[in-house]
Each structure stands twice: as C-alpha cells, then as structure tokens.
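Figure 2 data, in text form.
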Amino acid sequence: MPTLKITYTKSAIGYRADQGHTIRSLGLRKLGQSTTKDDTPDVRGMLRKVSHLVTVTEIEDE
C-alpha cells in the first residue's frame, strides 16, 4: 500500500473551521510540518477537502 507524505504549507486561518479541524485530524499542527499516512479513501477525502492548504507526495514502499 502506498504511503502519502503530507506537508502543511498554508495557514487555515480565514477558511471555514471544518477545514482547520481536518488539518488537525491529519496530525498537522504547525506550518511546514509533515506527516505520513497510508493511502486510504478516508485520507484521500480529507486531502481533497484541504488540498489548497497542503502538499502531498506519494512514497512507494519497497
């Protein structure tokens, strides 16, 4: 299963509160912070909601 590296690149201030909650639920707290998540439909849905605030890179497992 591929893994996604998610980097928080733009502040959620000024956007709807649910987008800030989605950023938090992805495990991101500070700008520039990165986390890795498994590529699941749930995570893809959250990323679609905040795609303008994060950068996503796919990491292939070897």
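Caption note: The radius of gyration is 11 Å.
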